[in-house]
Automatic annotation (TrEMBL):
One Gene Ontology term, aspect cellular component: plasma membrane
TM annotation in the entry: 235-261
UniProt name for this protein: Interferon alpha/beta receptor 1a
PANTHER family listed in its UniProt record: INTERFERON ALPHA_BETA RECEPTOR 1 ISOFORM X1 (PTHR20859:SF85), INTERFERON/INTERLEUKIN RECEPTOR (PTHR20859)
Pfam families the record matches: Interfer-bind, Tissue_fac
Gene Ontology molecular function terms on file: interferon receptor activity
Domain Fibronectin type-III as annotated: residue spans: 10-117
Keyword Transmembrane: yes
Chain intervals for the UniProt region annotation (Disordered): 336-364
Claim: RNA-binding is one of the keywords in the record: no
Polar residues: compositionally biased ranges: 336-358
Biological source species: Bagarius yarrelli (Goonch)
Length: 393
């Protein structure tokens, strides 16, 4: 009885193995690496399968190698590409630890038919290739060449020197004009390198690659950069450059001077005109800037003032040719009541009144008014200028 049970179990295992092995395994499974970019690629031959099994998909998984010691039911394989029709799977996004050891496996399936697993062991520190510098910048400096190197980058744009502390660079340079160039080289772990012993005003070509000696890693070379070295400029070239620059800048200087001259002339004509402004405009502008400036015309409307009585008081002059005359104008009652206020104006202008020497009484004519001096009182006004109220001479 026990023998029959064992035979039945073995038969089931054989059938299961035949079902699992119904599809062939993928061919030429390779892992393409550069820095921390890992891409698993394979080849699938359609002619190896029957017509009903041509729609084949693939599944790729990874597992840390130390987990193989656990039972199979506890091995936690992580599927990265699940049932993909592509013939490659990118493991870069899995962020495999650079110093760890990993197992990558791949199989094909079509419906219920599957192939056997193909397992590859992978250690990035040992197996992953390193790339050349990200960029190389070559510039001439005082007859030499300065080489600026950018580190190769990881998948997350970090420097590879964080994973490979002993990474350094191998720089090769040669003279481009030579028919049989003699290559010179220099190694450096720095990102800024000065190439020594170069000829002035000569073309040189430079290329760089990355190296790591622990696992003998060598990258391919960067693109070749060619540039000419500089040197001390001859004096005749300095003089020639100066004359050329002077000849080019002189017309510009003249144009600038002409522009400044015309602009200054325009400003002077605008703010300081040669023809003076009319008196009313000047008076108006003066009123804007100073409210205390004397006015020729009253601010309020003029009033006609008429008077029948005129008193003139003339003090005794003391050795002066011009007597001081005070005119008092008495407004009529009607005019005072209508205006409600007394308007006065003083003038210091010369009235044209002159005095004559002598001790006797003298008469002074003031626009038709006869005055008897001293102490005389004159009545009668032939004509009084309109708008004049008080006059002082």
């Amino acid at each position: 009885m026990e023998l029959g049970v064992l035979r039945g179990a073995s038969l089931l295992l054989c059938c299961a193995s035949l079902v699992c092995a119904a599809l062939p395994v993928p061919q030429n499974v390779t892992l393409h690496t550069l820095n921390t970019n890992y891409v698993l690629k394979w080849v699938w031959d359609v002619d190896l399968v029957q017509d009903d099994a041509r729609n084949v998909t693939f599944t790729a998984q990874y597992l840390a190698k130390f987990k193989l010691k656990k039972p199979k039911n506890k091995q936690d394989w992580t599927s990265l590409c699940e049932s993909t029709p592509e013939h490659e799977c990118d493991f870069s996004s899995a962020k495999l630890h650079y110093l760890g050891v990993w197992l990558l496996r791949l199989r094909a399936q079509s419906g219920q038919s599957v192939s056997a697993w193909i397992v590859k062991e992978f250690c990035p520190d040992r197996d992953a290739a390193i790339g050349p510098p990200l960029a190389v910048n070559v510039t001439p400096v005082k007859g030499l060449l300065q080489v600026m190197i950018s580190d190769p980058l990881t998948f997350s744009n970090g420097s590879m020197k964080e994973l490979l502390p002993n990474l350094y660079y191998f720089i090769v340079y040669w003279k481009m004009s030579s028919s049989t160039p003699k290559c010179n080289n220099i190694t450096s772990a720095n990102k800024l390198v000065i190439l020594p012993v170069l000829e002035s005003w000569t073309w040189y070509c430079v290329r760089v690659r990355s190296l790591d000696d622990y696992y003998k890693k060598r990258s391919f070379f960067s693109p070749t950069y060619c540039i000419q070295t500089d040197g001390h400029t001859p004096y005749w070239q300095i003089v020639l450059y100066f004359l050329l620059s002077l000849g080019l800048s002189f017309p510009l200087f003249l144009g600038l001077c002409l522009f400044i001259f015309r602009a200054g002339k325009l400003v002077m004509n605008t703010f300081f005109p040669s023809v003076p402004l009319p008196a009313p405009i000047l008076e108006y502008l003066g009123d804007l800037h100073s409210s205390e400036m004397p006015r020729l015309l009253p601010a309020e409307p003029e009033l006609e003032i008429c008077s029948d009585n005129l008193d003139i008081l003339i003090p005794q002059p003391q050795d002066t040719e011009v007597a001081e005359i005070t005119l008092k104008v008495h407004l009529p009652a009607e005019t005072s009541q209508q205006s409600g206020r007394t308007l006065s104006r003083h003038s210091s202008c010369d009235s044209g009144v002159y005095s004559t020497e002598g001790s006797g009484p003298r008469q002074i004519e003031l626009e038709g008014v006869k005055v008897e001096k001293p102490g005389g009182k004159v009545q009668g006004v032939e004509e009084l200028d309109e708008g004049v109220q008080d006059v002082s001479v």
